[in-house]
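Q: How would the C-alpha coordinates look for this protein?
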Amino acid sequence: MTDQAVKRLTPDELRTLFLFESLTEEQLQWLSEAGYVEPVHDGTVFNEGDEATCCYVLLSGEIRLCKLSHGELVEINRTGQRGVYSGAFNAFFGANDHKSYTATMQVTQPSEFFVISAETMATMMNTWFPMAVHLIEGFVMGMRRTNETLGERERLLALGSLSAGLTHELNNPAAAAVRAAATLRQRVSGMRSKLAMLADGTLDATKLHQIVALQDDAVERLDKNKDKDIPPMELSDREDALTDWLDDHDVQASWDVAPVLAQAGLDVPWMEEVLTAVGPKYLEGAVRWLMYTIDTESLMNEIDDSVTRISTLVGAAKQYSQIDRAPYQTVDLRELLKSTLVMMSGKLQGYEVVKDFDPELPPIPAYAAELNQVWTNIIDNAVSAMGGSGTLTIRTRRDGAYAVVEIGDTGPGIPEEIRRRIFEPFFTTKPIGEGTGLGLDISWRIVVKKHHGDLRVESEPGRTVFKIVLPLEPERELESDPALLA
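A: Here is the predicted structure in C-alpha coordinate form.
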Protein backbone atom coordinates (compact mmCIF):
# COMPACT_ATOMS: atom_id res chain seq x y z
CA MET A 1 0.00 0.00 0.00
CA THR A 2 1.52 3.33 -1.10
CA ASP A 3 1.53 6.32 1.23
CA GLN A 4 -1.01 8.06 -1.01
CA ALA A 5 -3.43 5.16 -0.61
CA VAL A 6 -3.22 5.12 3.19
CA LYS A 7 -6.40 6.34 4.83
CA ARG A 8 -6.00 8.22 8.10
CA LEU A 9 -8.30 9.63 10.73
CA THR A 10 -8.40 13.29 11.56
CA PRO A 11 -7.81 14.42 15.17
CA ASP A 12 -11.53 15.17 15.49
CA GLU A 13 -12.42 11.65 14.32
CA LEU A 14 -9.94 10.14 16.77
CA ARG A 15 -11.49 12.09 19.64
CA THR A 16 -14.78 10.24 19.05
CA LEU A 17 -13.10 7.01 20.17
CA PHE A 18 -13.25 6.57 23.97
CA LEU A 19 -9.64 5.36 24.00
CA PHE A 20 -8.35 8.74 22.78
CA GLU A 21 -11.00 11.21 23.96
CA SER A 22 -8.75 12.78 26.64
CA LEU A 23 -5.67 13.34 24.46
CA THR A 24 -4.48 16.86 23.63
CA GLU A 25 -4.71 18.34 20.14
CA GLU A 26 -0.97 17.86 19.69
CA GLN A 27 -1.19 14.21 20.74
CA LEU A 28 -4.19 13.57 18.49
CA GLN A 29 -2.34 15.13 15.54
CA TRP A 30 0.70 12.93 16.17
CA LEU A 31 -1.47 9.83 16.46
CA SER A 32 -3.39 10.78 13.31
CA GLU A 33 -0.14 10.72 11.37
CA ALA A 34 1.23 7.57 13.05
CA GLY A 35 -1.84 5.34 12.62
CA TYR A 36 -3.90 4.34 9.63
CA VAL A 37 -7.27 2.85 8.72
CA GLU A 38 -7.39 -0.75 7.51
CA PRO A 39 -10.53 -2.48 6.14
CA VAL A 40 -10.96 -6.23 6.69
CA HIS A 41 -13.81 -7.77 4.73
CA ASP A 42 -13.75 -11.32 6.14
CA GLY A 43 -11.56 -13.93 7.82
CA THR A 44 -8.88 -13.67 10.48
CA VAL A 45 -7.18 -10.43 11.48
CA PHE A 46 -4.49 -12.13 13.58
CA ASN A 47 -3.85 -15.54 15.14
CA GLU A 48 -3.17 -16.47 18.73
CA GLY A 49 0.56 -16.95 19.23
CA ASP A 50 1.70 -14.82 16.28
CA GLU A 51 4.10 -11.96 16.97
CA ALA A 52 2.03 -9.02 18.19
CA THR A 53 2.86 -6.27 15.71
CA CYS A 54 -0.22 -4.02 15.81
CA CYS A 55 -3.04 -2.75 18.01
CA TYR A 56 -6.47 -2.72 16.33
CA VAL A 57 -9.26 -0.30 17.31
CA LEU A 58 -12.68 -1.16 15.86
CA LEU A 59 -14.29 1.66 13.83
CA SER A 60 -17.18 -0.27 12.31
CA GLY A 61 -18.32 -3.86 11.83
CA GLU A 62 -18.09 -6.75 14.30
CA ILE A 63 -15.29 -8.89 15.70
CA ARG A 64 -15.04 -12.20 17.56
CA LEU A 65 -12.16 -13.19 19.83
CA CYS A 66 -11.30 -16.89 20.11
CA LYS A 67 -8.95 -19.06 22.17
CA LEU A 68 -7.59 -22.41 21.08
CA SER A 69 -8.91 -25.27 23.23
CA HIS A 70 -8.55 -28.99 22.57
CA GLY A 71 -7.53 -28.24 18.99
CA GLU A 72 -10.59 -26.06 18.35
CA LEU A 73 -11.20 -22.31 18.39
CA VAL A 74 -13.58 -21.39 21.20
CA GLU A 75 -15.26 -18.00 21.02
CA ILE A 76 -14.69 -15.95 24.19
CA ASN A 77 -16.15 -12.62 23.08
CA ARG A 78 -18.10 -11.04 20.22
CA THR A 79 -18.81 -7.33 19.89
CA GLY A 80 -19.57 -4.55 17.46
CA GLN A 81 -18.96 -1.71 19.96
CA ARG A 82 -17.08 1.11 18.29
CA GLY A 83 -13.71 1.80 19.89
CA VAL A 84 -13.00 -1.64 21.38
CA TYR A 85 -9.41 -2.68 20.89
CA SER A 86 -7.23 -5.78 20.76
CA GLY A 87 -3.77 -6.85 19.70
CA ALA A 88 -0.48 -5.31 20.80
CA PHE A 89 -2.00 -2.96 23.38
CA ASN A 90 0.65 -4.05 25.92
CA ALA A 91 3.56 -3.32 23.59
CA PHE A 92 4.92 -0.72 26.03
CA PHE A 93 6.13 -3.47 28.39
CA GLY A 94 9.87 -4.10 28.65
CA ALA A 95 11.77 -5.08 25.53
CA ASN A 96 12.66 -8.48 27.01
CA ASP A 97 9.01 -9.37 27.53
CA HIS A 98 7.74 -11.93 25.03
CA LYS A 99 4.91 -10.33 23.06
CA SER A 100 2.43 -12.36 21.09
CA TYR A 101 -1.26 -12.18 20.39
CA THR A 102 -3.11 -13.82 23.27
CA ALA A 103 -6.17 -14.70 21.18
CA THR A 104 -7.33 -15.03 17.60
CA MET A 105 -9.40 -12.11 16.23
CA GLN A 106 -11.78 -12.58 13.32
CA VAL A 107 -14.39 -10.36 11.69
CA THR A 108 -17.95 -11.61 11.24
CA GLN A 109 -18.81 -8.90 8.69
CA PRO A 110 -16.89 -6.28 6.69
CA SER A 111 -15.13 -4.16 9.31
CA GLU A 112 -12.77 -1.23 9.56
CA PHE A 113 -9.98 -0.65 12.08
CA PHE A 114 -7.70 2.14 13.19
CA VAL A 115 -4.31 0.43 13.35
CA ILE A 116 -1.33 1.45 15.49
CA SER A 117 1.96 -0.43 15.20
CA ALA A 118 3.50 -1.96 18.34
CA GLU A 119 6.45 0.44 18.06
CA THR A 120 4.10 3.42 17.84
CA MET A 121 2.13 2.18 20.85
CA ALA A 122 5.33 1.76 22.88
CA THR A 123 6.61 5.22 21.95
CA MET A 124 3.26 6.86 22.66
CA MET A 125 2.79 5.26 26.09
CA ASN A 126 6.35 5.78 27.29
CA THR A 127 6.45 9.39 26.09
CA TRP A 128 2.99 10.56 27.15
CA PHE A 129 2.28 8.42 30.21
CA PRO A 130 5.64 7.39 31.73
CA MET A 131 4.28 7.21 35.28
CA ALA A 132 1.34 5.04 34.17
CA VAL A 133 3.73 2.72 32.33
CA HIS A 134 5.88 2.34 35.48
CA LEU A 135 2.81 1.69 37.61
CA ILE A 136 1.39 -0.90 35.21
CA GLU A 137 4.74 -2.62 34.76
CA GLY A 138 5.24 -2.65 38.51
CA PHE A 139 1.81 -4.13 39.05
CA VAL A 140 2.29 -6.80 36.37
CA MET A 141 5.81 -7.72 37.51
CA GLY A 142 4.67 -7.72 41.13
CA MET A 143 1.82 -10.09 40.33
CA ARG A 144 4.19 -12.28 38.35
CA ARG A 145 6.72 -12.46 41.19
CA THR A 146 3.93 -13.11 43.68
CA ASN A 147 2.63 -15.93 41.53
CA GLU A 148 6.10 -17.44 41.22
CA THR A 149 6.90 -17.11 44.94
CA LEU A 150 3.59 -18.44 46.20
CA GLY A 151 3.56 -21.08 43.48
CA GLU A 152 6.94 -22.36 44.72
CA ARG A 153 5.65 -22.27 48.29
CA GLU A 154 2.55 -24.20 47.26
CA ARG A 155 4.71 -26.84 45.61
CA LEU A 156 6.96 -27.06 48.67
CA LEU A 157 3.97 -27.37 51.01
CA ALA A 158 2.51 -30.11 48.84
CA LEU A 159 5.88 -31.86 48.74
CA GLY A 160 6.20 -31.59 52.52
CA SER A 161 2.74 -33.07 53.00
CA LEU A 162 3.49 -35.91 50.59
CA SER A 163 6.89 -36.53 52.25
CA ALA A 164 5.23 -36.82 55.66
CA GLY A 165 2.71 -39.28 54.25
CA LEU A 166 5.47 -41.24 52.50
CA THR A 167 7.50 -41.42 55.72
CA HIS A 168 4.48 -42.83 57.53
CA GLU A 169 3.85 -45.34 54.76
CA LEU A 170 7.51 -46.43 54.78
CA ASN A 171 7.57 -46.75 58.56
CA ASN A 172 4.82 -49.38 58.66
CA PRO A 173 6.47 -52.03 56.43
CA ALA A 174 9.92 -51.19 57.83
CA ALA A 175 8.71 -51.79 61.40
CA ALA A 176 6.99 -54.99 60.31
CA ALA A 177 10.20 -56.25 58.68
CA VAL A 178 12.21 -55.50 61.83
CA ARG A 179 9.70 -57.33 64.04
CA ALA A 180 9.57 -60.30 61.68
CA ALA A 181 13.37 -60.52 61.52
CA ALA A 182 13.64 -60.55 65.32
CA THR A 183 11.02 -63.31 65.61
CA LEU A 184 12.64 -65.22 62.75
CA ARG A 185 15.89 -65.33 64.68
CA GLN A 186 14.10 -67.01 67.60
CA ARG A 187 12.32 -69.51 65.35
CA VAL A 188 15.53 -70.52 63.57
CA SER A 189 17.19 -71.08 66.95
CA GLY A 190 14.27 -73.27 68.07
CA MET A 191 14.38 -75.17 64.81
CA ARG A 192 18.06 -75.97 65.28
CA SER A 193 17.34 -77.23 68.78
CA LYS A 194 14.55 -79.56 67.62
CA LEU A 195 16.72 -80.83 64.77
CA ALA A 196 19.43 -81.74 67.27
CA MET A 197 16.87 -83.57 69.42
CA LEU A 198 15.72 -85.59 66.43
CA ALA A 199 19.30 -86.32 65.38
CA ASP A 200 20.18 -87.64 68.85
CA GLY A 201 17.38 -90.24 68.72
CA THR A 202 17.11 -93.51 66.95
CA LEU A 203 15.37 -92.26 63.83
CA ASP A 204 16.67 -94.06 60.79
CA ALA A 205 17.44 -92.32 57.49
CA THR A 206 14.10 -93.32 56.01
CA LYS A 207 12.14 -91.59 58.74
CA LEU A 208 14.26 -88.42 58.42
CA HIS A 209 13.64 -88.37 54.69
CA GLN A 210 9.91 -88.73 55.37
CA ILE A 211 10.00 -85.80 57.82
CA VAL A 212 11.83 -83.63 55.27
CA ALA A 213 9.24 -84.59 52.66
CA LEU A 214 6.46 -83.65 55.09
CA GLN A 215 8.29 -80.39 55.80
CA ASP A 216 8.40 -79.58 52.08
CA ASP A 217 4.72 -80.45 51.78
CA ALA A 218 3.89 -78.15 54.70
CA VAL A 219 5.76 -75.26 53.04
CA GLU A 220 3.96 -75.92 49.76
CA ARG A 221 0.58 -75.88 51.50
CA LEU A 222 1.53 -72.64 53.23
CA ASP A 223 2.39 -71.00 49.89
CA LYS A 224 -0.95 -72.08 48.44
CA ASN A 225 -2.90 -70.77 51.42
CA LYS A 226 -1.07 -67.50 52.12
CA ASP A 227 -3.20 -65.46 49.72
CA LYS A 228 -6.48 -67.19 50.63
CA ASP A 229 -8.93 -65.45 52.88
CA ILE A 230 -10.08 -68.34 55.11
CA PRO A 231 -13.44 -67.64 56.81
CA PRO A 232 -12.96 -67.19 60.59
CA MET A 233 -15.45 -69.94 61.48
CA GLU A 234 -13.72 -72.46 59.21
CA LEU A 235 -10.32 -71.54 60.62
CA SER A 236 -11.63 -71.86 64.19
CA ASP A 237 -13.09 -75.32 63.49
CA ARG A 238 -9.80 -76.43 61.96
CA GLU A 239 -7.85 -75.19 65.01
CA ASP A 240 -10.21 -76.99 67.39
CA ALA A 241 -9.85 -80.27 65.51
CA LEU A 242 -6.05 -80.02 65.51
CA THR A 243 -5.99 -79.06 69.20
CA ASP A 244 -8.04 -82.15 70.12
CA TRP A 245 -5.81 -84.40 68.02
CA LEU A 246 -2.60 -82.97 69.54
CA ASP A 247 -4.02 -83.34 73.07
CA ASP A 248 -4.97 -86.96 72.33
CA HIS A 249 -1.36 -87.62 71.33
CA ASP A 250 0.19 -85.84 74.34
CA VAL A 251 1.70 -82.94 72.41
CA GLN A 252 2.36 -80.11 74.88
CA ALA A 253 0.97 -76.57 74.46
CA SER A 254 -1.38 -77.67 71.68
CA TRP A 255 -3.11 -74.27 71.91
CA ASP A 256 0.14 -72.66 70.67
CA VAL A 257 0.81 -75.16 67.90
CA ALA A 258 -2.66 -75.67 66.40
CA PRO A 259 -3.22 -72.07 65.09
CA VAL A 260 0.09 -72.18 63.17
CA LEU A 261 -0.72 -75.54 61.59
CA ALA A 262 -4.31 -74.53 60.76
CA GLN A 263 -3.26 -71.26 59.12
CA ALA A 264 -0.93 -73.23 56.85
CA GLY A 265 -3.82 -75.42 55.65
CA LEU A 266 -2.77 -78.53 57.59
CA ASP A 267 -5.45 -80.85 59.00
CA VAL A 268 -5.86 -84.01 61.09
CA PRO A 269 -5.31 -86.50 58.19
CA TRP A 270 -2.03 -84.76 57.43
CA MET A 271 -0.98 -85.02 61.09
CA GLU A 272 -1.70 -88.75 60.93
CA GLU A 273 0.93 -88.95 58.18
CA VAL A 274 3.42 -87.26 60.50
CA LEU A 275 2.62 -89.76 63.26
CA THR A 276 3.10 -92.65 60.85
CA ALA A 277 6.45 -91.24 59.70
CA VAL A 278 8.07 -90.61 63.12
CA GLY A 279 6.09 -92.69 65.57
CA PRO A 280 4.60 -91.61 68.94
CA LYS A 281 8.00 -91.24 70.64
CA TYR A 282 9.29 -88.49 68.36
CA LEU A 283 5.94 -86.87 67.49
CA GLU A 284 6.42 -83.93 69.89
CA GLY A 285 9.81 -82.98 68.41
CA ALA A 286 8.65 -83.49 64.84
CA VAL A 287 5.53 -81.36 65.35
CA ARG A 288 7.59 -78.58 66.93
CA TRP A 289 10.09 -78.75 64.10
CA LEU A 290 7.32 -78.52 61.52
CA MET A 291 5.72 -75.64 63.42
CA TYR A 292 9.03 -73.74 63.38
CA THR A 293 9.36 -74.48 59.67
CA ILE A 294 5.91 -73.05 58.95
CA ASP A 295 6.48 -70.10 61.27
CA THR A 296 9.83 -69.39 59.61
CA GLU A 297 8.30 -69.44 56.13
CA SER A 298 5.49 -67.15 57.28
CA LEU A 299 7.97 -64.68 58.74
CA MET A 300 10.08 -64.73 55.57
CA ASN A 301 6.93 -64.07 53.55
CA GLU A 302 6.15 -61.14 55.84
CA ILE A 303 9.66 -59.74 55.43
CA ASP A 304 9.41 -60.21 51.66
CA ASP A 305 6.06 -58.40 51.56
CA SER A 306 7.38 -55.56 53.73
CA VAL A 307 10.54 -55.08 51.70
CA THR A 308 8.53 -55.25 48.45
CA ARG A 309 6.20 -52.58 49.85
CA ILE A 310 9.17 -50.37 50.70
CA SER A 311 10.63 -50.90 47.23
CA THR A 312 7.25 -50.06 45.67
CA LEU A 313 6.99 -46.85 47.70
CA VAL A 314 10.52 -45.77 46.81
CA GLY A 315 9.86 -46.57 43.14
CA ALA A 316 6.63 -44.57 43.27
CA ALA A 317 8.46 -41.64 44.87
CA LYS A 318 11.10 -41.71 42.12
CA GLN A 319 8.38 -41.95 39.47
CA TYR A 320 6.49 -39.10 41.08
CA SER A 321 9.51 -36.79 41.41
CA GLN A 322 11.11 -38.04 38.15
CA ILE A 323 14.52 -38.27 39.84
CA ASP A 324 17.34 -39.03 37.37
CA ARG A 325 15.01 -38.53 34.41
CA ALA A 326 14.85 -35.93 31.67
CA PRO A 327 12.20 -33.24 32.28
CA TYR A 328 10.58 -33.89 28.88
CA GLN A 329 10.16 -37.54 27.94
CA THR A 330 7.71 -40.11 26.65
CA VAL A 331 5.64 -41.30 29.61
CA ASP A 332 2.80 -43.67 30.45
CA LEU A 333 0.05 -41.58 32.03
CA ARG A 334 -1.25 -44.61 33.92
CA GLU A 335 2.09 -45.07 35.68
CA LEU A 336 2.20 -41.38 36.60
CA LEU A 337 -1.29 -41.62 38.08
CA LYS A 338 -0.43 -44.80 40.01
CA SER A 339 2.68 -43.21 41.51
CA THR A 340 0.67 -40.16 42.58
CA LEU A 341 -1.95 -42.38 44.25
CA VAL A 342 0.80 -44.21 46.13
CA MET A 343 2.31 -40.92 47.26
CA MET A 344 -1.11 -39.70 48.41
CA SER A 345 -2.21 -42.99 49.99
CA GLY A 346 -2.07 -41.44 53.46
CA LYS A 347 -4.63 -38.80 52.46
CA LEU A 348 -6.81 -41.34 50.69
CA GLN A 349 -7.45 -43.53 53.72
CA GLY A 350 -11.20 -43.83 54.28
CA TYR A 351 -12.02 -43.15 50.62
CA GLU A 352 -12.90 -45.62 47.90
CA VAL A 353 -10.54 -45.25 44.94
CA VAL A 354 -11.78 -46.51 41.56
CA LYS A 355 -9.17 -46.85 38.79
CA ASP A 356 -10.43 -47.31 35.23
CA PHE A 357 -7.31 -47.19 33.06
CA ASP A 358 -7.50 -47.80 29.31
CA PRO A 359 -4.85 -50.48 28.59
CA GLU A 360 -4.62 -49.31 24.96
CA LEU A 361 -3.73 -45.69 25.80
CA PRO A 362 -0.32 -45.04 24.20
CA PRO A 363 2.55 -43.18 25.94
CA ILE A 364 2.82 -39.46 25.22
CA PRO A 365 5.66 -36.90 25.29
CA ALA A 366 5.23 -34.76 28.41
CA TYR A 367 6.80 -33.06 31.40
CA ALA A 368 6.13 -35.96 33.76
CA ALA A 369 6.93 -34.32 37.10
CA GLU A 370 4.69 -31.37 36.29
CA LEU A 371 1.79 -33.62 35.27
CA ASN A 372 2.18 -35.39 38.61
CA GLN A 373 1.72 -31.99 40.23
CA VAL A 374 -1.52 -31.54 38.25
CA TRP A 375 -2.88 -34.89 39.50
CA THR A 376 -1.82 -34.01 43.05
CA ASN A 377 -3.54 -30.63 43.05
CA ILE A 378 -6.81 -31.98 41.66
CA ILE A 379 -6.90 -35.10 43.87
CA ASP A 380 -6.09 -33.01 46.95
CA ASN A 381 -9.01 -30.68 46.16
CA ALA A 382 -11.30 -33.68 45.58
CA VAL A 383 -10.37 -35.20 48.94
CA SER A 384 -10.90 -31.86 50.66
CA ALA A 385 -14.31 -31.47 49.00
CA MET A 386 -15.52 -34.93 50.03
CA GLY A 387 -14.71 -34.22 53.66
CA GLY A 388 -13.74 -37.62 55.05
CA SER A 389 -15.60 -40.17 52.91
CA GLY A 390 -16.61 -40.73 49.31
CA THR A 391 -15.40 -42.20 46.04
CA LEU A 392 -12.47 -40.92 43.99
CA THR A 393 -12.64 -42.11 40.38
CA ILE A 394 -9.72 -41.84 37.98
CA ARG A 395 -10.13 -42.79 34.32
CA THR A 396 -7.90 -42.65 31.27
CA ARG A 397 -9.04 -43.00 27.68
CA ARG A 398 -8.17 -42.01 24.16
CA ASP A 399 -10.21 -39.44 22.25
CA GLY A 400 -8.89 -39.30 18.70
CA ALA A 401 -5.52 -37.53 18.73
CA TYR A 402 -5.77 -36.81 22.46
CA ALA A 403 -5.29 -38.63 25.75
CA VAL A 404 -7.96 -37.84 28.33
CA VAL A 405 -7.57 -38.16 32.10
CA GLU A 406 -10.70 -37.74 34.23
CA ILE A 407 -10.54 -37.26 38.00
CA GLY A 408 -13.94 -37.33 39.66
CA ASP A 409 -15.27 -37.15 43.21
CA THR A 410 -18.61 -37.55 44.96
CA GLY A 411 -18.42 -34.28 46.87
CA PRO A 412 -21.12 -31.61 47.04
CA GLY A 413 -20.17 -30.11 43.67
CA ILE A 414 -18.94 -26.67 42.65
CA PRO A 415 -21.55 -23.89 42.43
CA GLU A 416 -21.84 -22.19 39.05
CA GLU A 417 -20.66 -18.80 40.36
CA ILE A 418 -17.50 -20.43 41.76
CA ARG A 419 -16.92 -22.72 38.80
CA ARG A 420 -16.26 -19.74 36.54
CA ARG A 421 -13.41 -18.60 38.78
CA ILE A 422 -11.66 -21.75 40.00
CA PHE A 423 -8.78 -21.41 37.54
CA GLU A 424 -8.10 -17.79 38.55
CA PRO A 425 -4.88 -17.11 40.49
CA PHE A 426 -5.39 -16.76 44.27
CA PHE A 427 -9.05 -17.82 44.12
CA THR A 428 -9.81 -20.36 46.83
CA THR A 429 -12.80 -21.58 48.79
CA LYS A 430 -10.62 -22.94 51.60
CA PRO A 431 -10.38 -21.14 54.96
CA ILE A 432 -7.63 -18.55 55.44
CA GLY A 433 -4.27 -20.24 55.91
CA GLU A 434 -5.28 -23.53 54.26
CA GLY A 435 -4.66 -22.64 50.63
CA THR A 436 -3.14 -19.97 48.38
CA GLY A 437 -5.62 -20.49 45.55
CA LEU A 438 -2.80 -21.28 43.13
CA GLY A 439 -3.17 -25.06 42.77
CA LEU A 440 -5.65 -25.01 39.89
CA ASP A 441 -4.06 -21.95 38.30
CA ILE A 442 -0.71 -23.78 38.23
CA SER A 443 -2.44 -26.92 36.92
CA TRP A 444 -4.15 -24.92 34.16
CA ARG A 445 -0.86 -23.35 33.06
CA ILE A 446 0.92 -26.73 33.05
CA VAL A 447 -1.79 -28.41 30.97
CA VAL A 448 -2.79 -25.57 28.64
CA LYS A 449 0.35 -23.46 28.28
CA LYS A 450 3.09 -26.06 28.63
CA HIS A 451 1.41 -29.13 27.11
CA HIS A 452 -0.96 -27.34 24.70
CA GLY A 453 -3.88 -29.32 26.10
CA ASP A 454 -7.09 -28.44 27.87
CA LEU A 455 -8.33 -28.49 31.47
CA ARG A 456 -12.05 -28.22 32.18
CA VAL A 457 -14.51 -29.14 34.91
CA GLU A 458 -18.06 -30.51 35.01
CA SER A 459 -19.88 -30.38 38.32
CA GLU A 460 -23.21 -31.08 39.96
CA PRO A 461 -24.12 -32.17 43.50
CA GLY A 462 -22.58 -35.58 44.10
CA ARG A 463 -20.41 -35.53 40.97
CA THR A 464 -17.47 -33.32 40.03
CA VAL A 465 -15.14 -34.32 37.20
CA PHE A 466 -11.95 -32.55 36.13
CA LYS A 467 -11.00 -33.49 32.57
CA ILE A 468 -7.38 -33.15 31.47
CA VAL A 469 -6.89 -33.39 27.69
CA LEU A 470 -3.36 -33.86 26.30
CA PRO A 471 -2.23 -34.23 22.66
CA LEU A 472 -0.72 -37.62 21.83
CA GLU A 473 1.67 -36.03 19.34
CA PRO A 474 2.26 -32.41 20.39
CA GLU A 475 5.02 -31.85 17.81
CA ARG A 476 2.67 -32.70 14.92
CA GLU A 477 -0.01 -30.48 16.42
CA LEU A 478 2.44 -27.58 16.73
CA GLU A 479 3.48 -28.04 13.09
CA SER A 480 -0.11 -28.06 11.90
CA ASP A 481 -1.16 -25.07 14.01
CA PRO A 482 1.56 -22.48 14.82
CA ALA A 483 -0.91 -20.68 17.10
CA LEU A 484 -0.17 -23.36 19.69
CA LEU A 485 3.34 -21.99 20.08
CA ALA A 486 1.96 -19.14 22.18
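Confidence is low (pLDDT under 50) at residues 432-438, 478-486.

DSSP finds 14 helices and 13 strands in the chain.

Upvote if useful.
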